[in-house]
Structures are given as structure tokens and as C-alpha cells.
Description:
The protein has 85 residues and is α+β, with helices and mostly antiparallel strands. It has helices at 58-70, 72-83; strands at residues 2-3, 13-16, 26-30, 34-39, 46-52. It has one domain.
Amino acid sequence: MGLLEAFQLPGCRLWFHTGDHGPPHFHAGAVDAWEIRVYFLQDPPDYDESFAVRHVPMKMVREILRLAAAHRAALLDEWERSQDG
């Protein structure tokens, strides 16, 4: 597991799982509260919910999707490196 290098967002953890399944995506969430998978190659980027103990804040999700679109090339580079283990 590695934290995203392309961008950070206060109050949110952003990471890739090493050797994760496709399609290319990263994980975002708040510890013990919620987690989403962000599919950044889609246009526009999309997401699905992994789990939610608390409400997933849509304002934060919209910002994550906006940043994913703005940093798509860097995210793809990070995804490819994360697949090498």
C-alpha cells in the first residue's frame, strides 16, 4: 500500500493497494468511517463505495473526483508503479 503522491486532501486518506485488481483506481477514505474506490481513467472519474460506517461526505467526494480528473496522468503513472509491487 502506498499513499498518493499526485495530490493530498486534508481530512482524507488517499492510497493505492500494491498489485490491486483493475481497472485502475485508488482508494480514499476516513479511518473507520468510510472508503471509496475512485476510477480515475473514466471521463469524468467515477467512484463506488467500499464501506461506510458514517455518511460519505459528498462535498469531499466531488473534490476527490475533481482532483482525480486534474491529475489523471500522474495517477496512472502511480497506478502502474503500484502494480510492480
